[in-house]
Amino acid sequence: MSAAEDIKIASEDRLRADLYNFLGLMLSGPPDQLLLDQCVGLSGDDSDLGQAISALSRVAKVTNPKKVESEFNALFVGLGRGELLPYASYYLTGFLNEKPLAALRSDMAANAMTRASNVYEPEDNIASLMEMMGGMIVGRFGTPATLEGQKAFFNKHIAPWAGHFFADLEGAKNSVLYASLGSVGKAFVEIEREAFRMIAV
Questions:
Q1: What is the CATH number of the domain that holds 32?
Q2: How many angstroms separate the CA atoms of 54 and 200, rounded?
Q3: 188: nearest Cα among 30, 27, 77, 34
Q4: Which domain range does residue 18 map to?
Q5: Cα distances (Å, whole numbers) of residue 133 to 36, 79, 93, 116, 147
Q6: Which of 33, 100, 108, 149 pairs as cysteine with 145 (C-beta 3.0–4.6 A)?
Q7: Structural domain includes residue 5
Q8: What's the pLDDT tens digit per position in 64-80?
């Protein structure tokens, strides 16, 4: 058994990491049929997050890869630019490639995170940040980050803007499937913010 397999991750933390990774995957590019089918298979409870997940499942059932690719492009690519710019620097300063990106790169280096060789956009995009949090929780970059480490990263790089981004995604003119994903992200970020607030550091 490898050292990675020896690491015990609490089931609730694995679920948190899975949701971060799912959001990252959905936001990194338009989902294929397999991922849409996985969305259809999701179900939720009566909580805000559970209801948002159920809504995402219902919308995924009536969409297809071609429709969602067109939606993704209108939201994030567009002619010149998409309806939304999903970057921390843009949300926090109004410009791309600003101080929030420099701060993130410094923290990525400190946590042994590197940008994938096939990714060319700035690291402070929402998809990458979701994947970074998911990876920190389960130890993809070494040992799993402590709750204090997770809280510091979340509060610095995600909390100040991700809720606003997900709310914008929820209400974007071109959002259909992604409006439901925006609801999931918004509810999840709020749960994480509240949980971290209760951790004394």
A1: 1.10.3480.10
A2: 33
A3: 27
A4: 10-197
A5: 23, 31, 22, 15, 11
A6: 149
A7: no
A8: 999 999 999 999 998 77
